[in-house]
Write a structure and sequence with these properties.
alpha/beta, about 180 residues, 6 strands, 8 helices, globular
Length: about 180
């Protein structure tokens, strides 16, 4: 599917502290770089969504199993260095940067308001990880009635089998799944 006039590219959790956890981030970085270049050339807004907590992570409840364990381990998820977008994908003037507080791109920020104000109805999703931010954002965005495309090779996960299953069996129920090359072609 080609871009609709009301499309935005979401570049999610592609920040230094998350990218550095991948065994080989080069392929996904190269693919997302290509998607960003295509979006900019086509006039599609590029929106960066990053995970960023305040110092000490006061937004994390002990009831939130995953983030509470990161907090207990002293993971640096509350630092600027962790939250900085990977330099290969650096935002440019005019790009929007959203900070989030949970897996999905929507909680704790004004992403939905910005999308609606810009009359964006179609989201193209990229991000790390496929089973985290991409899955959670896809589910919430579908419930908010956004049209969705997932760029399968613009996403990465620590578990390749989970990545494959999500892109071939789960995501197609609510989104069009395609490669970056198909999207830019």
């Amino acid at each position: 599917m080609k871009n609709t006039p009301n499309t935005a590219l979401l570049v999610m959790d592609m920040q230094i502290g998350i990218v550095s956890r991948l065994a080989d981030p080069k392929p996904v970085l190269a693919n997302v770089t290509k998607a960003i270049a295509h979006a900019r050339k086509a006039g599609v807004p590029v929106i960066y969504v990053t995970l960023k907590f305040r110092p000490g992570m006061p937004e994390v409840s002990s009831n939130n199993t995953v983030f509470a364990s990161f907090k207990a381990q002293g993971a640096p998820m509350d630092t600027e260095a962790f939250a900085q977008v990977h330099p290969d994908l650096a935002p440019q003037d005019g790009d929007i940067i959203i900070k989030k507080l949970r897996y999905s791109a929507f909680p704790g920020n004004d992403l939905d308001m910005i999308l609606r104000a810009q009359q964006i109805t179609h989201l193209v999703l990229t991000g790390i990880s496929t089973s985290g931010v991409v899955l959670s954002t896809l589910r919430e965005a579908a419930d908010k009635d956004y049209q969705l495309t997932v760029l399968s090779d613009g996403c990465a996960d620590h578990d390749e089998e989970v990545h494959r299953v999500l892109n071939t069996k789960v995501f197609p129920r609510q989104a069009q799944v395609m490669s970056v090359e198909e999207w830019v072609g």
